[in-house]
Sequence to fold (777 residues):
Amino acid sequence: MKFEWFVALRYLLSRRKQSFISIISIISIAGVGLGVATVILVIAVLDGVEHGIKERFLANEAHVILRLIDNGFYSNYENKIEAIEKVEGVVAASPIVYSQLAVFREGSKQIEDVILIKGIVPEVEDKVTSFTKFVNGSYDFQNDDLIKEARFLNDDITITGGIVLGSRLAQRLIVNEGDVLRLVVNMTEDRFNPGAFIPLIRNFVVIGFYESELTVYDNQTAFIDLETAQKLYQVDGQINFILIRLEDAELAPEMGEQIIAATEFAILEAPTTTTWLETHAALFQALKLEKIATVIIEALIILVAAFNIASTLIMTVMEKTRDVGMLRTLGASRRQVMGIFMIKGSIIGMLGTLAGTALGLYICWLLSTNVMRPSPWIANACIGILSCSVIGIAYRRIDTVSVVFIIFAIIFSINMFITPFLVLSSTMRTVLIILGVIALLIFWIVVLIKSWQKLSSIWKPTFLALGLLAIGFIFFCYIKPISLEELGLSAIYQMNQLPIKVNWFFVCFINMLSFAICWLATIYPAWQASNLKPIEALQYE
Amino acid sequence: METLIRIDNLHKSFYDGDTELKVLKGVNLDVHQAEVLAIMGASGVGKSTLLHIIGTLDRPTEGNIFYEDEDVTTFSERELTRFRNDAIGFVFQFHQLLPEFTALENVAMSGLIRNTRKVADENGNRYSSSKAYEKAEILLESVGLSERLGHFPSQLSGGERQRVAIARALINQPKVVLADEPTGNIDDKTSGAVLDVLQDINERLKQTFIIVTHDSRLSERANRTVHLVDGKIADE
Fold:
């Protein structure tokens, strides 16, 4: 073994006696590890949320919308759609008549709401926005039984056809299937009374509900037949929107030009495309900003851990000043002395980084895996037995550690034994559990610091392994996927459970970054050690 | 007798702000091959400083030190480091053993450092760690500590530690072993044993020793004793 490694490993592993690993090294490693784990976890949650939201949005959102800049109608759309579908990367395109309407309820004269209306061909729309998947009821706009029934029941009015309403919109309007909605299509000037306008009203039967769980759609959109819409707006054979689905949604911004070129619009018609990213620009920009801010904060966390390593090393250098003096006297070069301390620090950094990665990925896995967890009581029992045995083996009398142990045992018990019987909000419960886990961690650290040196070299790795297993098991018992439904956030985030997405590229990046920062942190203390003058170092008290 | 080290008009001053403190004021001294030279003097007279300069741990303000006609005061920092590793063994008043390492490892340390420089022995073979440990074991046996190889310094007595320190100084077959009050920190009975070891090594291995001390019993055992008075070697 190389000389520097030999000395560095010994310094890392022990004080005075040949033992397993020194407590100060463990604390430094834990510092780095917690930093790295936090970074991986937080980024996985943010990525998960972003990915989840995107997925939800993209399920029923056109990737690209083609329209004229004034939203005007145009004919000959069949050819354009054919041309668009030939563009590489395009899956399907669907013609739409898109407009707004005012709604009356049956028998009422008051405007209830203003809604967005989409005239579609269900079969074609299906290929672009999976329309039929989200419809609860029927989407046969012309011949549904409900329409016939309504025509039979309301023989005094003309029923134009069927309509599919956004589910939340329907709730707001308090309508059921089979109810008739009165829609104001547009206003025409009264021929006999110039200056006055007569609303053009059409009656539609509600035949189904659109339930995508995306508030934007469920809250304000209704769907009717494309032909009916064209008649309504007197634009036979014309449409104003083409919705397009791509193979890769992320490529939407780059595809716009190609699609416009394929459609061969005249320049004066000013065709333009809108991508899903632009439609929800505010949201995705907010997510992006949040992520950048988080990455910066996370980098700071790792920096803190690096300071931890630096201070550990500076302490070691101070403690080892006389040793350094002796090594230099024995003929060790400055480079070798520097190497010893840099190796020591780098090993701490590397172990911490790896441990942190493992911990972070484990928690990510726990947060995304829905399996039955054992009762926390079993975990509590495990903790109790393990803690008592450490105390028992390291100590055989009452002292500070035992007192600390009792205090934390009480806190932990209150937490775990009393909380189930209390009526608490889930936030409160989570806070209490987190407090309990923190208490437990502090307890373990105290146990480690106080009793570590008293354990023999066989017990140390044993307890380290058992401790890690126990912590893993406790995590397994307590850390479950976070239900957004229980927290009442499912409507806001459009998801039932907090999504987790591990970005492996980022994990590698964070590993390298963390290691690099730790390595940099070792330079100064090591340099300081190598600069000690042998004589002064030998006389250092 | 052959001269091993020639010290020529050695001066050393320390500066405390603007005040110059002259410690050595022109030391001239020849050290012969295979002798035990004791340097005696009142405390604070600069004995240790002289020893540190001879051992290249410190540089003189003026003057030269020749090891077999090689002037070490002209060496670079890097050359000095190598020189210390190859040619000089140190024994200090406080044993200065590395607490994390066993007696055997402490003794072998200097040999391990030498191995990293990839120097070859007289037969052209590279040193290896196992060879350093072998040699360390032999040396520890020769100072009477064959039972203590795996013990840490904290598990050894004062005299035992000092004997480990002596064994450590010998591992690379140095030209000279410099000892600074080797018995200064241990009781009379134990120091007798330590001195026996020194004398035995001197006689068996023809090892040159320079010992700084104010212990008269130690100087009695030396081949030659010089006195450092007022920064100079007093007439013998």
